[in-house]
Design brief:
mainly alpha, 109 residues, single chain
Length: 109
C-alpha cells in the first residue's frame, strides 16, 4: 500500500513516542488500528457498491438493446411488406415441383 521502509517506520514510531508519550502510546496505537480497519471496511463497501452499480448498468444497457431490437422487428416487416403469417401463404402457393411432374400426365382418369 505505502512504500515505507523499516527506517521510516522507526522514525514515525519515535515521533509518535515523543508527541504522545509512553503512557498513552498503546491507546493511540489501538485507536489508529481501529480507524484503519474501519477505513478498509468502508472502502470495501464502496468498491462493492461501485461494482454492483456497474453490473446493474451493464444489464440495463443489454436490456435496452434487446428492447430496441424487438421494437424494430414490426417496423422491418412493415417496410418489407410481409405480414409475419408465412404459414398460410405457403399453404396457398402451388408446389411447382408437383405441377411440373403432373404437367405431362393426364389426370382425367
Amino acid at each position: 500500500m505505502f512504500d515505507i521502509g523499516f527506517q521510516e517506520i522507526i522514525v514515525i514510531f519515535l515521533v509518535a513516542l515523543i508527541v504522545v508519550g509512553p503512557k498513552n502510546l498503546p491507546q493511540v496505537g489501538r485507536a489508529l488500528g481501529r480507524a484503519f480497519a474501519e477505513f478498509r471496511r468502508a472502502m470495501a463497501e464502496v468498491k462493492d457498491a461501485v461494482e454492483s452499480n456497474e453490473v446493474v448498468r451493464e444489464f440495463k444497457e443489454e436490456y435496452e438493446k434487446a428492447r430496441d431490437g424487438i421494437r424494430k422487428i414490426p417496423e422491418e416487416y412493415a417496410t418489407s411488406g410481409e405480414t409475419g403469417d408465412n404459414t398460410k401463404q405457403e399453404e396457398a402457393k402451388p408446389n411447382k415441383i408437383e405441377d411440373s411432374e403432373n404437367a405431362g400426365k393426364d389426370t382425367r382418369g
